[in-house]
Amino acid sequence: MHAENPLVVPNSFRISFAPYRPGLSRNVSAEGPGAPAASPKVERSDRQVIGYLAFSGILLALGIDIALPAYDDIAPAMGLDPASTSITLIITLYFLGMATGQLLWGPVADRFGRATTMTISVTIYVAAALAAALAPNMTLLLIARTVWGVGAAGPAGLRPAIARDLYEGDQMARIMSLIMAIFMAGPIMAPLVGEMLLLVGSWRLVFVFCAVAGAAQIVWTQRFGETLDPADVRPLKFSTTIEAFRRVLTTRATIGYTVALSFANGSFFIFLGSTQPVMSNIYDLSDWFAIMFAVSGVIMAGGFFAANALIQRFGARQVSIVGMVGFVIVAVIHVAVTLGADGQPSFWVWIGFITLLNQLAVSLGPSCFTLGLEPMGELAGTAAAVMGFFTTALGAGLAALIDMRIGLSVTPMAVGYLVYGSVALLALVTAESRKQAR
Questions:
Q1: pLDDT value for 23
Q2: Is the domain covering 42-437 a CATH 1.20.1250.20 domain?
Q3: How many C-beta atoms lie closer than 10 Å to residue 213's C-beta?
């Protein structure tokens, strides 16, 4: 019996495919002030780990996707012209804050532990969401959104770091695939939740809902406990942090997988930034946006479950290469069909291609993070932060290059997917060849 500790779960309730790395899923004392605090041993089932990390990812999706249906309400409230593209800065600056914030939270997490860092970063998330809800003008709203992104950077960078604390190799890739599959509930449900909230209140209520979700994450973090091995605690010194960054940036395999994921994310971020305007301006289906966004999310979630099974059978490296080869082949056909339709294929043809390409693109994430963090060992927090920074910042920048070119034609989107997917495939092949040569 385990009545003395509610987090201890009998073996019969654990998912059998993921045994623990001994000694990592616990809190024990470490030398030095501010080290992860001592506490009784905490055992976690795979189900608990997957649920906790998936929910931390859902926070990120809420910060992005729940606001999309509110664009038409936010713009006039902030004094913007209906045709103004400035409203997209709500997403762009959130991504910017999330990218740069990971460079802060990674070293902090390696010094003070994952639980403390998660609590502080999500507290900032909650405060910034409330500030955005109360913002009287566009300037203050954008400032709040940037700070909100900095808070969101905590769970963004800590998800792979915590997974790396507890698992390794293909096992970690499988767990990350399941986490991402459940995480897709965020993009699936967030626009629908946003629509429902708009039925009973203003766009400000949408941001308040995000703050409530953040508060729930803080409570869950206290129950989940610490995962950083005290032997891996690193001093928070400028020179030590710079050395950690240098090691990450000079590890060829890590950089290869980071570049690959950055360009794959770039294609997916095009979808996030441009789907609502495309459905509204090209296909005149703005009322269907939330539903179609949710349906595409369900399909992508299925892709993560499929990726988990494939990784278990063939391994993360082979699955990532084959997946991106498939992406490039589909992207070539997509470009040909789009050009043949003068940049305006039928809606169902367009959404079909985009959904399939997105599924292949986002499924690359678990494998790339796993393979990129594999050589990092005790630098998991900082390495995850550096990878998160580049994959988010570079991905968002690449998407912006395409988003601004989409008017009454989806040709730029089709070409962007093909170019970015090709670069991602090249980076994967390069990373593999360099890894084998070492």
A1: 35
A2: yes
A3: 21
